């Protein structure tokens, strides 16, 4: 059984590696807060518990990495924006695996909510 202590952050990457053109900017903000010694914020990042994968990796390689990360997470932080509904592969897979297999809670975040 996996030791679950990480936070899995799910977001829509919008098929781009540009860090300003997708919801990855919110994930990067969380990492920035966690590394800043002046901010009291601690992120145990499940994405850092496995080797890095690239968007150009084989689909099965990506899926295996996502499953491993989710299996080692105690919850999922789901970043929802206007574009999340356009993701038809990875975000739905991550949600399904988190609920159906890992049985972990999902915390939904709406960064553009007024």
From TrEMBL:
Q: Where is the Thoeris protein ThsB TIR-like domain?
A: 8-112
Q: What is this protein called?
A: Thoeris protein ThsB TIR-like domain-containing protein
- Origin organism of this chain? Methyloradius palustris
Q: Give the lineage.
A: Bacteria, Pseudomonadati, Pseudomonadota, Betaproteobacteria, Nitrosomonadales
One Pfam family from the UniProt entry? ThsB_TIR
């Amino acid at each position: 059984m996996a030791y679950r202590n990480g936070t899995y952050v799910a977001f829509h990457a919008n098929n781009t590696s540009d860090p300003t053109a997708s919801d990855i900017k919110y994930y990067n903000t969380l990492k920035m807060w966690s590394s800043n010694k002046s901010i009291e914020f601690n992120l145990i990042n499940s994405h850092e518990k496995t080797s890095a994968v690239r968007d150009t990796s084989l689909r099965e390689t990506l899926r295996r990495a996502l499953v491993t990360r989710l299996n080692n997470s105690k919850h999922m932080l789901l970043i929802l924006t206007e574009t999340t509904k356009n993701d038809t592969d990875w975000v739905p897979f991550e949600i399904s695996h988190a609920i159906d297999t890992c049985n972990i809670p999902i915390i939904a975040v709406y960064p553009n909510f007024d």
